[in-house]
Specification:
99 residues, single chain, 3 helices, mainly alpha
């Protein structure tokens, strides 16, 4: 079961394309969801971190780049709250300038 879940996330494949050697994909998916809901994954992670810390084998390296980090839609220069700035009067390029 763990190998099936690891395979899915390592390859990025869809659940329905999980190799047959791992069994029915619905069973793997349902087990993953049950373990997430009941806190099993959190307990496993906590135990692994505690063991690594006790063995003094814990070193964190965190990296992020633009292929995995997405900005919020408003981070790309969206208009801020408040009144809109007034547009300056424009003159058609072919017409005479108004005084």
């Amino acid at each position: 079961m763990i190998d099936a879940i690891a395979y899915k996330f390592q390859t990025g494949t869809q659940w329905v394309h999980l190799p047959e050697r791992y069994g029915n994909w619905r069973g793997v998916y349902n087990r993953l969801r049950m373990w997430a809901i009941d806190g099993t994954w959190e307990r496993v992670f906590t135990a692994l971190v505690a063991q690594a810390d006790a063995d003094e084998d814990l070193a964190w390296t965190v990296s992020g780049d633009s292929t995995i980090v997405r900005a919020h839609q408003h981070a790309a220069g969206a208009r801020k709250k408040g009144p809109r700035p007034a547009n300056l009067a424009t003159t058609p390029s072919a017409g005479p300038a108004a005084d």
